[in-house]
Structures are given as C-alpha cells and as structure tokens.
C-alpha cells in the first residue's frame, strides 16, 4: 500500500491521501503546485476548495468503494478511493484551483501619432514627448521631457519642467531607457506596463516614434495603473502559476470572450485538435466533440454563458493524431468585473484512462459486490490492530457484506472494532487473522465461536495486499448443521460397528460378515464369514459388478445394481436384500447394509458394510404374505357363502308369506322346509369355519397317535351312512403310528371319509378303502380312496380351496377339504388328490395324507423304504 | 306389459334354492317366461356352444349368471361367451351374492351387460327380476 501511495504521489494528476484521522496525509506535487498551499495535516473538512471532498471520503470509507468528489457546482471533479486502514486516495483531475485572468497582452494601439496630438489635450491620460539621450556606445541612458500635457503630472506623479529623467530620478530603472530607446531606434510602437520604483507607481504605457527620419523623439501616452496592478497582484501570481501548471500537466487551456468565442488556446489545444491557434479561434471546437456528448456540452456552455455560472462537463474530444475520442473533463470560470463577464478561462483535462479505468473498476467492483452481497457466505475485511509488542489484539471491520449479518446477527459493523461488536470474541480468532496478516499465508479452519451463539464456522482468511498490509479478507459460513450431521454419521458408524460386534457374538455360526469396498480401485475385501455367506473365496472377487453378476439371483440383480448406483450418487446409506445362488445350487437370502465414505470432493471413496443371512426371515415373511392372501380370500368367500343361505331364507320367507295369504298351506310348508334347510346349512358352515380357523392355529403338542385306532373308531361312526349309501368301507391295518395332534388328525380323516361318502358313494361308487404306505425316507402316507366318479385332473388342486365344490352342494359346505389341507400343512405334512385308476366314469378319487418322516414312529408298516415310493400292498392284510 | 314373445332365459346357478327363487320371480313377471337352468360353468358353456348332450339346445335371449360356480367360474363363462362372435350379443346379467367391487369390475371388464347383487329381501328380489324381464323383454333388439 505504501508503494502504491508513493507511485500515485508521483503522478502528474493532482491527488492527495486522507489519513484515517481525516487529515490530509500526503499531497502530490501536481496538486501542491495547483493550489499553491501546503495542505498536509489540514483537516479534510477545512478544504473548502471542493465542497464534497469530506463527504466523498466518508462515503468511500463506508462502502469500501470509490466515491465521486463533486465541486461546488455539482460537477464531477474527482474520485475518492478507499485504500484500507481508513486511508482514502483522492484524485482530482480537475485541478482544484481558481483560474484568474491574465493580462490583456494582445491589445494593440492603432491610433496614429497625428490623432494623438489632436487628442492629447483633452485626454485624462498622461502624455509627453521625450527626446532620447545616448551614451558613447549608442545606448539610451536618459531622455528629456520635451512636451507634457495637462494630465501629465497627475498621472506621472511628478512635474517635468523640461528636465531629463535622470535629473528628476537618478535611480530610474534602466529598462525604461532601453524600452524607449528601442522604439526610437526601430520605429516600432510599444505598449507595456512597467513599475517605476522612484515614484512607487505602475504605468500602462503606449510609446511610438514621432518622426520617421531617425529622430530620437518618442511620444508617450500613459496611465497610472498602480491601483489595478496592486489589486491584481495575487491573482497575477496565480495566473503565472496556472500557466506553468497547465503546461506541465499537459492540459488544454483556453480563454473565450463573453459571447463564447475562443480568443486564446495553448499549444496543447492546437496539438490535440491538430489545428493552428488561428483556426481554432476562428472556427471553434464544437465539431471535435463527440456527437453524443455535443448536446450536453452545448447546453451547459450556453447556460454558463447566459448566467455566468461555472461550466463543468465531461465529454469526449476527437484527438487529431489518431482520430480517437478521449474523455475530457472540461471546465471554465467567468472573470467578472463590475458585474460584467469579461472573459472565460477554461481547461480541458484528459481523464480518458481514468474514466475508462474507473468504469471498468466500477463494473468489476459492482460485480464482486453483487456476488458477495448475494452470497449467504459471510465476508469481511479486517484491519488488524497490534499492541506495542506487535501482537495482534483487535481488528476493525473495514468492509462487510450482508452475509456477515446473516451469519453472525451483527449489523453495521464497518468502522467498528471487533472488541466493540463482539466483546467476548475468542482470542483465537484475532490471533488467527493476525497470523494471516503477518505471514501472508492463507488459513482455513473449522472452529467454534462461543461468542457467536456457539456456532461452528468454516473460515477462510487471506491477507489483502503486500507484506506491510494489516488487512485480512475473511470468508466464513456457519457449518453447525453439517457438523451435526457429521456427528450423527459418526454415531451411526459407531452403532453399526457395535451392532456388528453384537451380531458377531450372537451369530457365532458365521451368518454375518463384514466387507469393505474400495470404490476407485473397485476392490472388495471381506472377512471369512462374508465369504462363507457368499459361498465364495477371496480370490473370486475380480470386480464387484462381475462378482455380483455371478452370485446374485438374476431376478434380484437389476434392483441391486441400481440401488448401489443410487447410493453412490446421492445417498450415504445403502441397504438391500437379495438372493444368492451358491455354487451348490442353494439359494439364500442375504441382507447388505452399508455406508459410503466420501472424499473431500464428495466422491465416494469407500463403502463398508455388513452382510448377513436373512433366509429364515424372508421365508417367514413369505409365509406371512401367503397367510394374508389366504385370509383375504377366506374373508371374501365367507361373506359370499354365508350370504348365500341368507338370500335363500329371506327369499322363501317372502314366498311363504304370499302363499299363506293365498291360502296354499302345502306350498307354504314346502317353503318353510327350504328356509329350515338353509338355516341348517348356515349353521354347519359356521361350525366348519370355526374348525378351519382353529386348524390354522397352534395345535396341541404332538403326541403318539395310533392311526389304526383313529380310523377304526371313525369307521364305526360312519358305518350307518356308508350302509345307507349302499357301499362298504375297508380299513387295511396296520396303518402305523405318527407323532401328531390326535384331535386334529381325527378331523382330517373324518372329513376325507365324509367326502368319500358324499361324492364317492353319492356319485355311484360302492367301496371306500383306507390304507397306508411308506414313501421316500421315513414318510408315511394314509390313503382314502373310492370308486366313484373321481376328481377331474383340472380340479384336483382346486378342491382343497375353500368353498370350491365340484357340484352344486351335495350336502357339503365347501370347507372340509380346505380344513384337511390346512391341518396337514400345520403338522408339516401335506394332502393331495389323485385318480384311483378305475375305468372311465368310475375312475375313483384317491386322497393322500403324507406325514413327514420325522413324525413317523417305529412300528409303522413297511419299515424298509420303498424305492418306488409306492405301496405294493405287501404286509397290508386286506380288510375283512 | 309385454306384447312381445315370451323371454327365454338361461339361468346358471349352482344353488337350488336361489335357482327356484329366480324362476318363481321370472314366472311371476311373465308366466310364459321359459327358464332353462344349469348348475355349473361347464354345463352353461355346453348349452351356449351347443356341445355334447346340449347339441340341440336353443340359444337363450338372456343369460343370468352366478359368479361362484363349481368347476368353471362365472367369470370364465362370461369371458368365453363375450369372446365368441355368435354369442357375444346375448345379454349376460351377472346375478351374485357378492357385492365386492373387484368382482363387479372384473365382470364389467369381461363385458357383462349388467351386474346385480342378490338382495336379502324377497320383495326386492322380485321387483328386480320384474324390471329385468321388462327391460330385456322390450328392449333386446335380438329378441
């Protein structure tokens, strides 16, 4: 910053630097020369040369952006730019000064000598004729007054009386003699203003040679201008300075008559416009003004000419040398005498670079400001304050964006010390920013600030400027929420690890394994348990995708692949369940739970997780799903089949009413029978449904059941019905012993016998056989078959469904076989129907109950397994 | 009521009581109504497609179809009837105890002409059958 200041101070454009204490700190040579005053140390407010200077300095400090300096007329005169540290640079291309009139050096005296003679008597100016006196070398050394007029003594301040000048005033300046001597010698008239020390007067003098023949006589017309000269003295001095400065600043300087016509231009005007002074004075300058700017220029210049108010404008002027327009600051002030404008003094200052640079700067600044203002990120520039030992102790906010307020809750902090804004600010922050200012090393930290509500901030600090700068730019934002999430994740990871440990203890059998996937390298590592679970070896995993493609069930692979991709893209938690087909063909359900760890850029780096076997749970869920579906079907059919007898009952009761009214008792009795039958059917249905619902529940503990005893008892009970239907019932003992719920088993056999009576014998059959046979392994089959019409193949599964009857009722409720299937399933066995193999039309139905080997007890028939799984009938004595 | 020729109805109903109630109601509406009844889905299709023992069966003017039938279900019957270019114009009215929305939707999905839930009151049942006979007796363009 110091270097910059030094560079600026050497610039030809007038400028000054205002210190933080609002006093002028530095003034460059250009400005010092322009104003002719020693401004250093003066308060800015006292510099009334430019009305808005003080305000502009304040504005620049407040906003941190350049602020315009305006002159008394409100025109742009310069720019105040904050330097940091409270210092402000003020550039004044308009050269804060007051132009003053220069002497009218261009006036000429045109009157002829003869006319002087005629006039002199009546003149109130002094007039005399002098005769030059020369020394031996021909140099004019004195003159004698030959003639004087009446006003001579008043104007001259002395009487002549035919004396020579040296007689009157021996010390009269030699230059007077030289001036008159030149006029006498050359014959060229002269006009000059000169001071005569002897008389303490200034004289405005017109001198001309009287006779053209070499005579030494000179006519002199003069006026005492002492008063005016004294009044103008100070301004005259300034004018000299202005001239000098205007040349040294390379400014265009011009003067104009009250009507606006140029009557003087300096060499920079002619050089810039590429025209002679005469051409400029004759033709004017307006054609060199940029067309866009001309209306404004003309309007302001016209206004100034009419009112005498100062003329200020910025406009573009065409530079002849390269035919480019350059921005100029134009200004002119009127010289007023006796309430009348005498002449205009003006200057055009080339501010092109500055204007363009300023515009670019403004634009850039505006862009950055907009950026910072729109960001939710806090931003401020701190100016560090140090103690005597150079340790940072405080800082002052030089600039702060709206995000600062959003992040900290503190507003209007610019210009204040942090110790004022946040009194209990932690020293660590001051030290951090101090270190950044001292070392120039940017710093990024995430730390908490108890002083700002305990929030955590991500802070980036960097020094602004060079080695000597005390300024630190700080970007910061609240990361409390992110930290909270991170902490949550840590806890979750901890829990994941803990649960992994717990499961490892709980499932020592090795169903749970851990794995880690190094994502960029696509390398999967697992422990022994996970490889056992997958049915794979560590070397099998060449890449995760191909490994999964090999071991995962094809139906589950797409969802698994998509889930992994989705997790990597947008989530942290990964969870899926899928089937693995092991090399031995076994299918197991596996649950994968994982968590993604990301690098600083948010790219997934690793995923680690757990795999465990969930086959049993999935199977239980599947069973539950099936049960739910069955329940739904159950409710549906119940509503239908319970409603059916109700329709019958209400229908026939309605008929009954009409039949009674019509006096037809026999028809009424018939209807009443129908109602009673339907009610009875409904009652049976409800009983069966109750049975069925119990069948699905946990049964009595299994106990040894002697099938022969069960079947023999039932056969006795069914005897009358079988005989009534004209058939026989044979039981081929021994049937064997199983471990089962005896009561439920009895219900199963009863239903099969009832079914055989109703549909077998009822369908034209004559014989029911109950027998047993050994199946694969230890399994035992109990068979009930008849020689009735049989069950068509298409309906052999359907008959076990609830309320599925092959005929329109036939006395059954449609529940019996459903009950059989349900009870057998609960006992771990199964039931099915097949053909009994009879001739067409009398195929016969064969219902098979299969008890699992585990339930079969010793003493059962056919202890040796039958490789064909079919009974040979051997050892099964025919029933009587 | 009707000057038209008597209505010929095929009643597909496994429940004897319901079949009788429906028959009584139809005859109360018009004593000349001819009601042929079958008790399961297979028999219904045999009649309609004139198969086996029913090769000489007459085509009915209207089918009253229960949904819960032994063997082939009412919905299966409906689907086959409506898939056949000759039979699809015979109006099929589903007559069932089921008020289930799914059943109703399935029936209409298979182009049932009407879906009627068997009411729990005989009077309502009779009035309903009366309206049914009236409507199909007068407006069936094939009749």
Structure overview:
In chain A, 38% of the residues lie in helices and 27% in strands. Chain A contains 24 helices and 32 strands. Chain A has a 5-stranded antiparallel sheet, with helices on both faces. In chain A, strand 6 (126-134) and strand 7 form a beta hairpin. In chain A, helix 20 (615-661) packs antiparallel against helix 21 (665-695), helix 22 packs parallel to helix 23 (742-761) and helix 23 (742-761) runs antiparallel to helix 24 (816-826). The longest helix of chain A is centred in the last third of the chain and has 47 residues, at 615-661. Chain A is rod-shaped and about 190 Å long. Chain B is α/β, with parallel strands linked by helices. Helix content of chain B is 41%, strand content 16%. Chain B contains 5 helices and 5 strands, in the order βαβαβαβαβα. In chain B, strands 2-1-3-4-5 form a 5-stranded parallel sheet, with helices on both faces. Chain B starts with 7 loop residues before the first strand and ends with a helix. Chain A binds chain B through residues 636, 639-641, 643-648, 650-655, 674, 677-678, 792, 795, 803-809, and chain B through 14-18, 20-21, 24, 39-40, 68, 70-71, 96-98, 100, 118-123, 125-126.
């Amino acid at each position: 910053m110091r270097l910059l200041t030094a560079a600026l101070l050497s610039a030809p454009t007038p400028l000054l630097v205002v210190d933080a204490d609002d006093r002028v700190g530095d003034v460059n040579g250009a400005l010092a020369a322009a104003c002719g005053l020693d401004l250093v140390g003066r308060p800015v407010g006292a510099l009334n040369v430019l009305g808005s200077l003080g305000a502009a300095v304040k504005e620049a400090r407040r906003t941190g952006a350049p602020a315009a300096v305006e002159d008394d007329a409100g025109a742009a005169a310069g720019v105040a730019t904050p330097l940091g540290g409270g210092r402000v640079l003020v550039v004044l291309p308009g050269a804060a000064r007051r132009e003053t009139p220069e002497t009218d050096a261009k006036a000429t005296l045109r009157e002829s000598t003869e006319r002087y003679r005629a006039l002199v008597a009546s003149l109130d100016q002094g007039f005399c004729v002098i005769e030059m006196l020369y020394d031996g070398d021909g140099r004019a050394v004195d003159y004698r007054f030959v003639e004087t007029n009446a006003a001579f003594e008043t104007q001259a301040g002395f009487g002549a009386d035919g004396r020579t000048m040296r007689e009157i005033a021996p010390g009269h300046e030699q230059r007077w003699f030289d001036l008159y001597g030149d006029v006498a010698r050359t014959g060229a008239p002269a006009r000059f203003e000169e001071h005569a020390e002897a008389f303490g007067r200034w004289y405005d003098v017109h001198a001309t040679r009287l006779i053209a023949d070499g005579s030494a006589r000179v006519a002199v017309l003069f006026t005492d201008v002492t008063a005016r000269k004294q009044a103008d003295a100070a301004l005259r001095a300034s004018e000299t300075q202005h001239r000098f400065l205007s040349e040294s600043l390379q400014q265009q300087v011009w003067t104009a008559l009250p009507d606006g016509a140029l009557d003087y231009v300096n060499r920079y005007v002619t050089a810039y416009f590429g025209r002679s002074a005469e051409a400029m004075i004759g033709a004017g300058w307006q054609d060199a003004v940029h067309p866009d700017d001309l209306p404004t220029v003309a309007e302001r210049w016209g206004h100034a000419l009419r009112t005498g108010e100062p003329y200020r404008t910025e406009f573009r002027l065409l530079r002849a040398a390269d035919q480019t327009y350059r921005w100029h600051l134009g200004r002119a002030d009127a010289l007023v005498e006796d309430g009348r404008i005498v002449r205009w003094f003006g200057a055009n200052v080339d501010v092109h670079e500055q204007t363009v640079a300023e515009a670019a700067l403004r634009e850039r600044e505006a862009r950055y400001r907009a950026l910072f203002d729109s960001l939710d990120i806090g931003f401020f520039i701190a100016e560090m304050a140090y103690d005597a030992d150079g340790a940072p102790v405080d800082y002052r906010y030089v600039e702060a964006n709206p995000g600062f307020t959003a992040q900290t809750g503190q507003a209007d902090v610019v210009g204040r010390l942090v110790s004022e804004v946040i009194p209990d600010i932690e020293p660590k922050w001051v030290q951090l920013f101090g270190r950044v200012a001292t070392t120039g090393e940017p710093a990024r930290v995430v730390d908490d600030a108890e002083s700002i509500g305990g929030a955590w901030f991500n802070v980036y600090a960097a020094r602004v400027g060079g080695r000597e700068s005390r300024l630190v730019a700080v970007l910061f934002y609240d990361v409390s929420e992110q930290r909270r999430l991170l902490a949550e994740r840590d806890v979750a990871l901890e829990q994941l690890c803990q649960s992994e440990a717990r499961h490892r203890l709980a499932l020592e059998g090795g169903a749970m394994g851990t794995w880690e996937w190094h994502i960029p390298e696509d390398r999967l590592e697992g422990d022994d348990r996970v490889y056992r679970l997958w049915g794979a070896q560590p070397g099998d995993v060449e890449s995760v995708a191909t490994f999964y493609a090999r071991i995962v069930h094809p139906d589950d692979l797409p969802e698994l692949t998509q889930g992994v991709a989705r997790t990597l893209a947008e989530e942290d938690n990964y969870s899926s369940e899928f089937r693995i087909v092991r090399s031995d063909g076994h299918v197991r359900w596996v649950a994968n739970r994982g968590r993604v760890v990301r690098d600083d850029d948010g790219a997934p780096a690793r995923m680690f997780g757990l795999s465990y076997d969930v086959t049993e749970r999935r199977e239980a869920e599947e069973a539950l799903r099936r049960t739910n579906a069955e329940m739904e079907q159950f409710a549906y059919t119940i509503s239908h089949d319970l409603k059916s007898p109700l329709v019958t009952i209400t229908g026939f009761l309605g008929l009954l009413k009409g039949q009674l009214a019509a006096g037809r008792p026999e028809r009424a009795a018939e209807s009443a029978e129908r109602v009673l039958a339907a009610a009875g059917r409904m009652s049976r249905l409800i009983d069966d449904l109750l049975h069925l619902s119990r069948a699905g529940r946990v049964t009595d503990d299994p106990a040894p059941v002697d099938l022969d005893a069960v079947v023999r008892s039932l056969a006795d009970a069914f005897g009358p019905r079988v005989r009534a239907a004209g058939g026989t019932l044979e039981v081929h003992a021994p049937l064997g012993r199983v471990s089962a719920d005896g009561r439920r088993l009895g219900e199963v056999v009863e239903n099969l016998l009832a079914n055989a009576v109703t549909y077998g014998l009822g369908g034209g059959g004559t014989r029911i056989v109950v027998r047993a046979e050994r199946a694969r392994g230890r399994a035992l089959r109990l068979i009930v078959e008849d020689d009735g019409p049989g069950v068509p193949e298409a309906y052999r599964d359907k008959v076990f469904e609830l309320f599925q009857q092959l005929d329109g009722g036939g006395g059954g409720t449609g529940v019996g076989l459903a009950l059989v299937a349900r009870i057998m399933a609960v006992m771990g066995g199964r039931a099915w129907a097949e053909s009994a193999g009879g001739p067409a039309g009398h195929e016969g139905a064969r219902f098979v109950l299969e008890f699992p080997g585990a339930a079969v007890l010793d003493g059962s028939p056919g202890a040796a397994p039958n490789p064909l799984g079919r009974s040979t009938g051997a050892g099964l004595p025919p029933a009587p | 009521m009707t000057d038209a020729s008597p209505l010929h109805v095929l009643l597909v109903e496994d429940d004897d009581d319901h079949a009788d109630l429906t028959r009584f109601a139809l005859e109360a509406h018009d004593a000349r109504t001819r009601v042929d009844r079958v008790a399961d889905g297979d028999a219904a299709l045999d009649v309609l497609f004139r198969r086996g023992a029913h090769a000489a069966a007459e085509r009915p003017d209207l089918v009253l179809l229960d949904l819960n039938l032994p063997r082939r279900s009412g919905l299966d019957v409906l689907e086959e009837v409506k898939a056949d270019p000759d039979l699809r114009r015979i109006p099929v009215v589903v007559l069932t105890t089921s008020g289930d929305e799914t059943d109703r939707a399935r029936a209409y999905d298979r182009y049932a002409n009407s879906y009627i839930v068997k009411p729990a009151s005989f009077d309502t049942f009779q009035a309903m059958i009366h309206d049914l006979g009236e409507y199909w007796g007068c407006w069936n363009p094939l009749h």
